[in-house]
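JOB MANIFEST
job_type = single_chain_structure
chain_count = 1
residues = 201
[input]
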Amino acid sequence: MASGSTTRATLDDLYSVEGKAELVGGRIVQFMASGDLPTDVAFEISVSLRAYVKATGQGVAKTDGIGYAVPELPSGRESFSPNASYFTGPRPVNRMRFIEGPPNFAAEVRSENDYGNAAELEMAAKREDYFTAGTQVVWDVDPLAETIAVYRANNPTRPVIYRRGDIAEAEPAVPGWRLAVADLFPVQSSGGRESMGPVIR
């Protein structure tokens, strides 16, 4: 644990860090590079959001690595860096800096180390931070299970689960946007099960 004399990191310190990182509790939390499949999945979400932005002329779509700066939350978090996101607020005056404010919609794509009890607790805590900051919808995308769990601010503990064969959405954060779950994952060679539609757990 950090000692009481340790200097708290700031957003200015975060700007000087190479690679993907977030500011939480005065500490800079760095992330290891994503693997092949999680990166492809996140990119497909960003591409679909970008097409939506071009079609509607509303908001902006962001790929992995973008920084969103927020006022310090009760958890101590001061920034987010989702794998894909959509934002409708004002852009920063200095476009080289982070966006100020939370994304309307954030997609978190699981990497190899995002499994197990400890990881589940961390992801749940991060979703709570998103909703506290003002994000409306968060996707928990599982490349291994080939599922999208859609969490909403108005019902943050009961996600709607979409599987291969379903059409996922992010209402009300991205109005009218739809994405086929199967478009995110490689075609299964055999044994794929037919989806029975979205499930609420």
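[summary]
Residues 1-5, 189-196 have pLDDT under 50 and may be disordered.
The longest helix spans residues 36-56.
exit_status = 0
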